[in-house]
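Bug report

Summary: structure tokens for DNA-(apurinic or apyrimidinic site) lyase differ between web form and batch submission.
Environment: batch mode, default settings.
Steps: 1) Submit the sequence below via batch. 2) Compare with the web form result.

Sequence submitted:
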Amino acid sequence: MPEGDTVFLAGRRLDDALAGKELTRGELRHPRLIGHDLAGRTVENVVSVGKHLFTRFDDGRSLHSHFRMDGSWHLYRPGRPWRGADHEIRAILAVEDRVAVGFRLHDLELLPTDEEDRFVGHLGPDLLGEGWDDAASDEVLRRLRADPDRELGTALLDQRVACGVGNLYKAEICFLLKVSPWTKVGDLSDRQTEDAVSWSRKLLLRNAWRPEQSTTGDLGEGAQHWVFERGGRNCRRCRDVVRVARQDDGTKDAEDRVAYWCPTCQPGPHPDVPRVRGGRRPQQQTGRRARY
């Protein structure tokens, strides 16, 4: 599932392309929305809240979209070919100089703007939210510490704690904290829990305005991450072999939750997995950047 910075960047690009402009085409192909025509409506703005996008119109309605595992919005110049199968298109929003095409948007809903909380009201503070302040940070800390028996890796992914972190940043935050993803939240020091929140926001902000997602400071191919998707390869810090295993977070998507860690740099509880060089991670759909 895409990380929060992917959705944030998509929202900013859609906002730059559509905000303040009248739709010349507003076609919705989701089964629940067949027959709704948005042509003639003016786009007020496009905003992201965690991993949710809201495209707001001048008639007081919003189009809610969520990428889930494989959804994306593409932006094109009029007349340019679209990169995607026609049967996967769920929305087409066109203005005079841009066309936004939503592919594989499993969650698409048209609703009154003042009812957006139906989708995001249960979420924790948005790590990329404009209103982030010390109070938001303290609230995330409170929510994180509320269940001391929970594994840190699963807590970081819980959007009710803070929204924006996905599997990539879960792996990298645990590495930077020097703890196993299976470490109980209650076993962390106060400084470590504070750093978990700080790193969550810092890493998302670092990558929010660019397509690359680097946590090492290196944008070179294959050098952007400390442990994420490096199962079976040498740890960048100590040269031990990075391990990979599933981490059950108790949700319906548990089978897609994979943890990467270095047992030397990240002491703590973890599954017993073999030390295999060049090993491949369990197959999963990763939170790769959406295409625009």
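Above is the batch result. After comparison, the two runs are identical; trailing whitespace caused the diff. The chain has six helices and ten strands. The radius of gyration is 20 Å.
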